[in-house]
Amino acid sequence: MQLRYAFRLYPDTGQRTALAKAFGCARVVFNDAVRAREDARKAGQPFPRAGELSARLITEAKRTARRSWLGEVSAVVLQQSLRDAETAYRNFFASRNGTRKGPKQGAPRFKSRKDARQSIRFTANARWNITDSGRLTLPKIGAVKVKWSRALPATPTSVTVIKDAAGRYFASFVISTDPAVDATRMPETDQSIGIDLGLTHFAVLSDGTKIDSPRFLRRAEKKLKKAQQELSRKQKGSKNRAKARLKVARIHAKVADARREFHHRLSTKLIAENQGIAVEDLSVVGLARTRLAKSVHDAGWSSFIGMLEYKAARYGRVLVKIGRFEPTSQTCSACGAKDGPKPLDVREWTCTACGTVHHRDTNAAINVKSAAGLAVSACGAPVRPGAIPAQREETGSHGFPTEPRAV
């Protein structure tokens, strides 16, 4: 499996200038590639190939007075920008003809110098390296100071330098992990768990454990409101407005980092303790259109489930998503009787069939685990059977990171 390990960079003044040039040149080459293909489409001509674009937009462009400054940055950065444009078009066409899953992808658009996030990528042939003193040496940029929060488990295949909206710089390394080493880090266990995600509690587990929702954005709202009011009063285009925008971006970055840290710690803990995990396939897009939109986005369920997915694949765990229409909150986990829908303010209810008193979320988590069909094999490892009978009477189914993330 390929993972990304991100580390904070601290370039000096000269290196910031060199990075700004590299970001700008990569953006220009990307925009030139999009413009060339759009011109060909409007003229009814076939799209120019990647090799033709490379010769025209990089090699020949460097010899002209209009694009001579492209020679001031590494050629690998420019080639990777062309590859990004090629990938964007490939994803667009795959999305249109239905071969790409997920939401529909739009056609590539021009990048702006005002984009909040800027990035460039160096592959192995760019001859970048990590010095003995721990600095990252990049071609035509220099040896940049790195804050190493952990050791790299293997030799990286590429590095992406990123500048975020808060003005911070990061180096993101692509690492290929060793499955044998990953297996020793988290040995097999005979435990399995069901998870019910919510807003009052971020997660309630089928064993009764309740994990409070940190509500990072809600806690930062007072400070964020003041910063946004100050930004609104600044004159557009002024330096004071740029400073105020940076202040707002840093507050958002702090909230995002804290949320990501919380998701990483919780997902790693659940993966380490359980061989099988069951969650609901929530419609976050639909919930984000309701009056609970801000709280739904603040919880970050999609990000958390994504972490569970790649960590389960990495460490040999079983992650099962049940259908979102499974009546987990309506069904008694003790006798299987379906008691009908309930308003959100009903947190406890008594089953009319057997008299069992249920906590709404704990009962739902138990039903999530049951609906997932997680069973324990003879060797102690949970497996999910391909087809199983219904479990009840009726049928149905439903900063910066401290952990690496999947590529």
How would you describe this structure to a colleague?
This protein is of the alpha+beta class. The chain is built from 10 helices and 17 strands. The strands form 4 sheets. Strands 1, 2, 3, 4, 5, 6, 7 and 17 form an 8-stranded antiparallel β-sheet that branches. A hairpin with a 5-residue loop joins strand 6 (about 160-165) and strand 7. It is elongated, with a radius of gyration of 25 Å.
Keywords:
alpha+beta, 407 residues, eight-stranded antiparallel beta sheet, single chain
In short:
With 407 residues, this protein is α+β, with helices and mostly antiparallel strands. It has helices at residues 13-42, 50-59, 75-96, 179-185, 216-232, 239-273, 284-287, 293-299, 301-315, 360-372, and strands at residues 2-10, 118-123, 129-130, 136-138, 142-147, 158-163, 169-176, 192-197, 201-205, 210-212, 276-280, 318-322, 348-350, 357-359, 375-376, 382-383, 405-406.
The count of DSSP E runs of length 2 or more, i.e. the number of strands, is: 17
Please count the helical segments: 10
Helix content: 25-40%
Class by SSE composition: alpha+beta
What fraction of residues sit in β-strands? 15-25%
What's the gyration radius in Å? 25 Å
Biggest β-sheet strands, sense, barrel? 8 strands, antiparallel
User: What is the terminal-to-terminal distance?
Assistant: 8 Å
* Shape category: elongated
Mean pLDDT comes to: 88
Order of helices and strands: EHHHEEEEEEHEEEHHEHHHEEEHEEE
Segments where pLDDT lies below 50 for 5+ residues? 375-400
